[in-house]
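Let us practice reading a record.
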Amino acid sequence: MKVLHVFNEIKFSGAEIMYASAAPIFQEKGWELFAIATGNNIGEYVEEFELKKISVSHFPLPKTFSLFNKIKYYKNLYNFMKSNKIDVLHIHRSNIYFMAIVAKFANVKTVKTQHNNFKNRKFTLPYAIFLRFIVRKFFKVKFQTIGKSIYENELYYYKNPSTRINNWYNSNLFYPKKDNIEKQKIRKKTGINKEAFVIISVGGCSLIKNHFDNLKAVNLIHNKINIEYIHLGEGCTLKEEIKLAQQLGLIDKVHFLGVKANVREYLIASDVYVMPSRFEGLSIASIEAMSCGLPSILYDSPGLRDLINNNDNGFLIEESYELLAEKLLEYYYNKNLQKEKGNNAAKHVNSNYSMITNVSKMIELYNHEN
């Protein structure tokens, strides 16, 4: 059986990392994986796909509207699916439903994953509801959602039923530390202050990710405790975040380390994971941090509130850097609380975001008859 995944650019981000990690499981179960990048650039994560034996092609969408170019583009896609004997088209982009129509004519099943909690404006909402209905009803598209918030958003806002299959993480790459000796060894290896209370965030820099609140929280308490902040990732607001750290006099307390391959080591070397995002689909980075037994503080926003129940496996707080600072101090002064919430976090993600379990559910969805 063969599945063709459709991305924008194949980047170092959630869905791409998930499917690259899970590729060996799909392949063991008899699925051959293909991927196409439809953005202007093919993306920097292509090499990882190819290492995992995912066949990658570049099908950039036409930049300008031209009926001739559109027809040519979708004809090439049709021919690609037929010549490669694709069984399932799996769309990860949000705005290319016409591919599902082409797939129907090619006698290929379509799965459409909804990765985010976006809402249309009132005047475009009826069209969005209608479009979902049409491709579901007449072109037999199976919608899949990656977590509770998105499932409910699709069902109640867009009147669109879906199959909920949670995002997953790779437990071979992310798992709790053996003991504090391992933690200190990693701190020494990575150059992290062995005496500091270290908080960490992982992910792209943007206004939605809101790393500015991490800096503001550290600013409130850095004169009270020996705290350092590590950030892994890059993005459009990185320069502004560095500038804010400089303005606050925190440049020796904050470490912007860019994209790292050894993410687990930095998680294990840290004490608390923080994510003050205003909006998420379902945060893979948070799941990976929790799987390492790291206690967390997450903002109570769509896609993050799915991960913490009753504050038993971390703190879920309103958007407030003052409250974030308070919770950091609460963790700092209570090592038992850190341990308890970290252990509960690892158990929670292992139960709900298992790669083996959720890949099996995805294959069931692929095999579902239209």
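A brief commentary: The first strand starts at residue 2 and ends at 7.
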